[in-house]
Amino acid sequence: MQLEGTRIVVTGGAHGIGAGSVHAFVAEGAQVAVLDVKDDLTREVVDKANANGPGRARYHRCDIAGRTDVEAAFAEATSWLGGLDVLVNVAGVQRRMPAEDFTDDDLDFILGVNVRGTIHTNQAAFPHLREDGGTILNIGSDGGLVAMQGIAAYAASKGAVMSWTRAIAGEWGKHGIRANCIVPAMKTPMTDRGGEDGRAVYATVPLGGELGDVMDDLAPVMIFMAGPGARFITGQLISVNGGLVMVR
Hints:
alpha/beta, 46% helix, 16% strand
């Protein structure tokens, strides 16, 4: 088991990349606190992960857009975990429309979860990682690297997440904290809602002409990045996208 005894918080664990990460971490022996607002779905993920063991997962309700919610959830989660070694911040939202049509409500929703939520959770993890070091994994997007139709606000939010992650990697490295962005191109409920524009883009993936599978293609990378083998990697965009975007 590669993560036996590792204490992990995963946000956005109800489905997709978050749920897959929970299953992968628990299967490798980790203790995982799972944060989300989708009670029934998240409890199903936790129950299934626990049934397969040998690690353990527990659900904590949390809207990461709200700082007070995040601070309360982290206090509860780290008390149960007995500390914190890894934060995996997956929670994210998207709305598709022409760039000129995004309203303030749309922006508040997208930026609130994707940008403020990333900052809130990363800041909440910091005091728990400061003494002995640890890992922060945020989720970037190819949409934040190249132009993709219909997701301008989402792209802006993910560009901010990737910049924030590089910044804290530089600032918090002295504490032994490594911060990286995973840039995935996976089949998830979010990508399923991408419509014709999304499907046209995803069909251009060089490896196989389609999006990857969360468990087969992404989970092994998440396990590695959360573990000791990645101890000298920080401030990086780790693309797990089948070559969809090759920009550096």
